[in-house]
């Protein structure tokens, strides 16, 4: 029980803090006028598109339940299979112009929280936290600006943008 509680705590805090960095980075790049993010539907779409482009978890491991062949490769039962969340979220067969930040696109195929039985149980809580954070930034700030941008990506445990500075301009 204790190990499960610790897992949920670490998974929730580390992934959320990594993703908040991505949210702020996109806000500072001027992807949206802050006033537009007052609208909950626009805010939700902004969060989904940021999750698609900058998922905090880049890869997930699953184990084959049975012997199978995956794109011509034999995978024995119990073998580890590494799935790229980031790759799936930028698949040009699923998303037109996958490298572009475009709200309003279909979310079909985007898997930042995984899917099915192994989907993240905290996904709705995380999205609510992100929405409330954006709401508070919009309430307090007239603008968010990236002032130094030599974007790198840190990806030791959870992926997030690095090597940039941001200025929060208060109202």
UniProtKB/TrEMBL annotation:
A Pfam family hit: p450
GO molecular function: heme binding; iron ion binding; monooxygenase activity; oxidoreductase activity, acting on paired donors, with incorporation or reduction of molecular oxygen
Family: Belongs to the cytochrome P450 family.
Name of the molecule in the record: Cytochrome P450
Organism per entry: Streptomyces haneummycinicus
